[in-house]
Design goal:
CATH superfamily: Deoxyuridine triphosphatase (dUTPase)
Structural class: mainly beta
Radius of gyration: 19 Å
Helix content: under 10%
CATH topology: Deoxyuridine 5'-Triphosphate Nucleotidohydrolase, Chain A
Number of domains: 1
CATH class: Mainly Beta
Strand order of the largest sheet: 2-3-11-6-8
Oligomer: single chain
Number of strands: 11
Distance between the termini: 40 Å
Length: 146
């Protein structure tokens, strides 16, 4: 059964497209640039979307890279996934970095990232003297195989 969550959205202008799903089974909606810019190799910038959201409490929106842009141009979301908290009401901006070798041109209306709605549970700490044992223990950073 499909469940929908209503999210308030406002646009700086009507020529900015609403985020939309590319296919019926897409997990995320595409975010488009509300401005044109060029990102030089090795540089980063925050690209405005012209959108403001009203995300219900208990949810966040995660901003993630678009795989095609990452593969073709080496451009990705720097803080992936970026988090948009439910109490944030400012413009959604996407921090992009150009890891490629050529300048990356963004035109107004280009799809620059994708956004996924995620349910968020609140943490409640239960301080304990000892943690339970596992077969992995404290091994990390490649300890589970090569």
């Amino acid at each position: 059964m499909e469940e929908s969550v209503r999210i308030g959205i406002s646009r700086e202008s009507e020529d900015i497209p609403l985020p939309s799903y590319a296919t019926p089974a897409s997990s995320g909606v595409d975010l488009c640039a509300a401005e044109s810019t060029v990102i030089s190799p090795g540089r980063r910038t925050a690209v405005g979307t012209g959108l403001r959201l009203e995300i219900p409490e208990g949810f966040e929106c995660q901003v993630r890279p678009r795989s095609g842009i990452a593969l073709r141009s080496g451009v990705t979301v720097l803080n992936a996934p970026g988090t948009i908290d439910s109490d944030y009401r400012g413009e959604v901006r996407v921090i992009l970095i150009n890891h490629g070798e050529e300048p990356f041109r963004i035109e107004k209306g280009d799809r620059i990232a994708q956004m996924v709605l995620v349910r968020v549970d609140r943490l409640v700490w239960k301080e304990v003297k000892d943690l339970s044992e596992t077969s992995r223990g404290s091994g990390g950073f490649g300890s589970t195989g090569k």
